[in-house]
């Protein structure tokens, strides 16, 4: 990483683009400004189409069609009978196996969203009454060890493996790992489009999961998350379920543990960014990048790291237009179709000064095949009547 590049990032926080494989030259763009960063609008650049991958001409992608809830909830290709393996999950022989490692969320009425949105364009508001039925939720984000078992049992290949690349935050990479990179994201140059990056090689070349078996699996798309949950006899939570679970039964609460950033006793509640983004993460919460999935205290529902660490996929299609109703809406599921899915919780890259999305009401979105080094998931499951 050359000195000029660092200085430009630090001083201007403008959108840069990294070009040509040989010179990796820099150019300034006017689509992002320092004012945006100060207002908290720029974010870490991992939302919407910023991390969209081009479809490789030599490798037609099985999920290219627009998805709809009229289709099967799990949009997975039937390669080598994979759907048969997923519909008869090895890891979920009975209900006790399904709910192992999950918490029963009691359900009830709560206020979803907020009337004081930090990012109005994200559709954080308005605050509206919602009722969700009881359900189960994974206590933690899905760790690498569990996802590895899924791959071993089914032979599943993730979207990142099919594409041959994924997006990695540059600070996580060594100089040797950065060398094969040909481009970064113009609107967020700290995101490197990294060859061979995937769930099992999180930083691409010369990276693996040693000492990270208990960290959240990353570089998983929405499609990948749905496939895993189906194999476990589970599903992804709806956005309403996720937000209800995040709040831990409390009304109008910013974070899973309360309204102050630090918990009682000065303890950190989430793995987020401390320091100057994107060059210096001081790791005051004990972690610079991902943290083990059970490393921080749970909320009142017993759920750990509902905010920070990694973003979490939900079942809902993205929509920013919500109606404020007097009567509560029961078990909302969002639009029936779309091109992007809602993700919740923020990640280790979030900081209040630019990406204040580690609040329960905050939300963002990505395409169904998007993946990055700060994006994971946890599963939910129905309670049998």
Automatic annotation (TrEMBL):
The keyword Lyase does not apply. It comes from Ramazzottius varieornatus. Residues 49-98 are annotated as: Disordered. Residues 101-380 form the Sulfatase-modifying factor enzyme-like domain. GO terms for molecular function: formylglycine-generating oxidase activity. Keywords: Signal. Residues 1-22 form the signal peptide. Pfam families: FGE-sulfatase (PF03781). This is Sulfatase-modifying factor enzyme-like domain-containing protein.
